Amino acid sequence: MFPLTEGNKHVAQLLFSTGTCPRCIFRFCGVDFHAPYKLSYEELFNELQKFLKTEKGELILEVPNPPPKKIRLHELEDGIDGTDNQSQNGEGRVSIIEGGSIAFKSSSPNVCNVCLGILQEFCEKEFIKKVCQKVEASGFEFTNLVFSVSFPPQLSVREHAAWLLVKQEMGKQSLSLGRNDIVQLKEAYKWITHPLFSEELGVPIDGKVLGHQHC
Ligand SMILES: [Zn+2]
Ligand SMILES: [Zn+2]
């Protein structure tokens, strides 16, 4: 069920270390099937941490690149997940990772630096239930529902910054990132929330998300 592969590891690690949520990491790794996005946040967070921690030393061996590339990738890895290399310059990032995991255990997760919580608490069952309670409290009879969401303009700036970061990181691995290689925030939001709405209200949902089309 966990959708990321070894090829996604550098990008996932980079985004995770800067405070990006698991679902946004999926988006920027181009995960375009719905199921993984619907897992609970806690499960996603734990699976992601496990994914990023395992086989750390083997990563270099699996990269089929000529020697100069290996050196570059090796330096990159030291910089990113330098838990075993205390002398390297990765300490700052590691402490962010540790801080993130501690914060998650103690209370609610840190707010994602890309989606600002839209793919965290604002797409989870608890929040959708609250929206549905409002709908039901209106007393109307209805056979379908249009759910319109406006994202703040600030989000497109963050989305674009993350896109540039990922593009740069992939460039170091001689990979490219096109504008359509990532999953749009609004798409992921629909994938997660529409089934929850239908389940709660028992009617089909049509979704509109206004604003925010980055790139
Ligand atoms: Zn996010
Ligand atoms: Zn953009």
UniProtKB/TrEMBL annotation:
Residues 112-208 form the Pus10 N-terminal eukaryotes domain. It holds the Pfam family Pus10_N_euk. Coiled coil: none annotated. It comes from the Eukaryota. InterPro entries: Pus10-like, Pus10_N_euk. One of its GO terms (biological process) is tRNA pseudouridine synthesis. GO terms for molecular function: pseudouridine synthase activity. This is Pseudouridine synthase 10. It comes from Myotis myotis.
